[in-house]
Amino acid sequence: MLTTTIVLFILYLIYRWSVAWINYYNNLDKRFGMSVWRYSYDYHVAGKRDVSFLDDKKFVLLRRKRNRAVTFMYFIFFLSFIVFMSFMNQLLLRILN
After folding, report:
1. Taking residues 52-56, what's their average pLDDT?
2. How confident is the model at residue 54 (pLDDT cuts 50, 70, 90)?
3. Residue 45 φ/ψ, nearest 5 degrees
4. Is residue 92 part of a domain?
5. Which of 22, 62, 85, 88 lies deepest, with the highest CB count within 10 Å?
6. Between residues 52 and 13, which one has the greater pLDDT?
7. Phi first, then psi: what are they for 46, rounded to 5°?
8. Rounded to the nearest 5°, which phi and psi values hold at 87?
9. Is residue 41 part of a domain?
10. Could you tell me if residue 40 is inside a domain?
11. Is 15 domain-assigned?
12. Phi and psi for 39 in degrees, rounded to 5?
């Protein structure tokens, strides 16, 4: 149970670090908005003209880096959920025994 608690704390620190990177990328260009959870689209959306690689190369590369950071954040979030379920299992076993 102690190991699971330490792993949860480490995952929380990694999660905060990844959110800080997303906020950093959001502050580099105002076209991203301030959302941490939402991907910037890198594909055609009906009714909206997307910025292509030929239009603004720097922005598109920055958007791809930001989307990778968002993917990493989601991975850490769901991994934390699985570890948290393990922690809850261990806690309930201790309470019931």
Report:
1. 68
2. low
3. -115, 125
4. yes
5. 22
6. 13
7. -60, 130
8. -60, -45
9. no
10. no
11. yes
12. -80, 150
Measured in Å, how far apart are the chain's first and last C-alpha atoms?
14
CB 86, CB 4: distance < 8 Å: yes
DSSP 4-64: HHHHHHHHHHHHHHHHHHHHHHHHH-GGG-S-SSPPPP-S-BTTBPPPPTTT-HHHHHHHH
**Long-range CB contacts for residues 37-45, cutoff 8 Å, separation at least 24:** 37/70, 38/70, 39/67, 39/70, 40/66, 40/67, 42/67
Q: Provide the token pair at 37.
A: 């959870």
Whole-model pTM: value is 0.81
Domain hosting residue 59, numbered range = 2-33+51-96
Predicted pLDDT of residue 63: 87
* Closest to 73 in 3D by CA, of 32, 27, 39: 39
* Residue in the structure block whose two tokens are 């309470």: 95
The pLDDT > 70 percentage for the chain reads 85
> By C-alpha distance, which of 84, 94, 87 is closest to 12?
84
